[in-house]
Amino acid sequence: MRIGILSLLLAFACLTGLQAQEYINHPKKDYLVTLSTPLGEVRLVLYDITPKHKANFIKLVEEGFYDGLLFHRVIEDFMIQGGDPDSRNARPEQLLGNGDVGYRIDAEFHPDLYHKTGALAAARDNNPDKASSGCQFYIVEGRKRTDQELDQLEKQKEYTYPEAHRDTYLNLGGVPHLDQDYTVFGEVLEGLEVIHKIAQAETDDFDRPKEDIPMEISIKVKRKKWFERKYDFVQPG
């Protein structure tokens, strides 16, 4: 088992070294991620300033790893979570959420990245380094916050929310209490209404949707200028 995990880690290190240099942080090109579900499609982009998470996600998508997996944990006004390999062909009422790929990804926190509505972030266990799961991710639905809530969170976390982040939490929404504890590595560009539909699904006592919501994920290379023109998106940082 140790040899198998080591091999995975070495393979991942080789991939991040090659793809990060040649593709991940390309000065003129980027990846458009399309997440397809029975409730509609979502378009996302991955951040350059989280290169390890970006490289790993692209690797798994190219391998078809996510195709057929379920959104196994859904909480309205909070987030939708998927990427558990055990969810493929899972039995009804089977408890999910513990599946993984045998390695973690180092945390990549950045002051410009936060849990606004539509943020794509990596799930993790309670490891002390806050390293991310190698495959499980979540997309924030969240809700609008109040100044009082944010003030209280700042005291609890001993963290000051930048003014732009605070404005987003007040007017768009999100889950600010997760900032700088879980790695955010991308965001929704189109299809937030699909995220809301999934988040509103009827669930069991373990937050698994009673009717399965499978996913397929694909990627296309686009010029960064295309992202700017179509979505007014510029890479943060």
Query: Approximately how much beta-strand content do the residues carry?
Result: 15-25%
Distance between the termini: 39 Å
Structural class of the secondary structure composition? alpha+beta
Kindly report the spatial arrangement of strands forming the biggest sheet.
Answer: 3-4-8-6-9-2-1-10
General form: globular
SS element count, helices? 6
The CATH superfamily title:
Cyclophilin-like
Please report the total strand number as a whole number. 10
CATH top level label: Mainly Beta
Helix and strand run: HEEHEEEEEEHHEHEH
Biggest sheet statistics: 8 strands, antiparallel
Domain unit count: 1
Q: Which ranges are low-confidence, i.e. pLDDT below 50, for 5 or more consecutive residues?
A: 1-21
- CATH T-level topology: Cyclophilin
Using the 3D structure, state the CATH architecture.
Beta Barrel
Q: How much is the average pLDDT?
A: 91
Whole-number radius of gyration? 17 Å
Percent of residues in helices = 25-40%
